[in-house]
Specification:
3 strands; alpha+beta; 3-stranded antiparallel β-sheet; binds manganese (III) ion
Length: 197
């Protein structure tokens, strides 16, 4: 089974004014579609062709760069769309809020550390909240790497990720990554984040 571009559960315009419709449309139909197409091409006819994406990512050091870049791209974006919602924003509740408070001191401190991870990632990459064997951690990765990859510095289950590639924000925010990351909190789908805790 070849990988396919997932459908969004909301319209491209639904995250405005925080994430603009044109960015969403290009990001989904061009960038994400290209990762899917290039991943399928890179896997075609090989021994990993019919493996699941998580198994592929867990063995990424054995695979070509095209699989790392496009497999990561496909996986990361599939979750990124779910981590945002027109009904998002505000604060998490219950077990997730407790875990963020006890790990990072407060919800505001967590947001500050996560944003800093996104701001200090030089060039293109992702900021992450990760569930590890040793509790919750904040990290960032370059390019389309993610915490499921065997090459990742911090390994675990990605609970939340923010795309800090310029294509995620440049049309609306130009070089102001800080404003995009601040706006991101208004659309975070905390139910989706809590679902993987
Ligand atoms: Mn992207």
């Amino acid at each position: 089974m070849a990988f396919e571009l997932p459908k969004l559960t909301y319209d491209y315009v639904a995250l405005e004014p925080h994430i603009d419709a044109r960015t969403m449309e290009i990001h989904h139909t061009k960038h994400h579609q290209a990762y899917v197409t290039n991943l399928n091409n890179a896997l075609a006819g090989g021994e990993w062709e019919n493996k699941g994406i998580e198994e592929i990512l867990a063995n990424i050091s054995k695979l070509p760069a095209a699989v790392r870049n496009n497999g990561g791209g496909h996986y990361n974006h599939s979750l990124y769309w779910q981590w945002m919602s027109p009904k998002g924003g505000g604060q998490p509740t219950g077990k997730l809020l407790d875990a963020l408070n006890s790990t990072f001191g407060s919800f505001d401190k967590f947001k500050e550390l996560f944003s800093t991870a996104g701001m200090t990632r030089f060039g293109s990459g992702w900021a992450w909240l990760v569930k590890t064997g040793d509790g919750l951690k904040i990290t960032s990765t370059p390019n389309q790497d993610n915490p499921l990859m065997d090459v990742a510095e911090v390994k675990g289950t990605p609970l939340l990720g923010a795309d800090v590639w310029e294509h995620a924000y440049y049309l609306k925010y130009q070089n102001r990554r800080n404003e995009y990351l601040a706006a991101f909190w208004n659309v975070v789908n905390w139910e989706a984040v809590a679902g993987k805790l």
